[in-house]
Amino acid sequence: xxxxxxxxxxxxxxxxxxxxxxxxxxxxxxxxxxxxxxxxxxxxxxxxxxxxxxxxxxxxxxxxxxxxxxxxxxxxxx
Length: 78
Known about the structure:
Layout (H helix, E strand, L loop, with lengths): L14 E6 L7 H13 L4 E6 L9 H18 L1
Parallel strand pairs: 1-2
């Protein structure tokens, strides 16, 4: 009931979704579903799946990819 996917109409800012491919805490499908739902209603959203990534971004490669994506996203939307 508290999932953000249930409140998409209330989202008024661009959203960046970063999700590790091998996240064992939150299913990857949740981010994919959120991305699809936001796109379907025309909300600005970007989704990046981190190859081999887990929930904690323990891979240096994934941390770097995430940080660069965040930097680019923030610069684009500020």
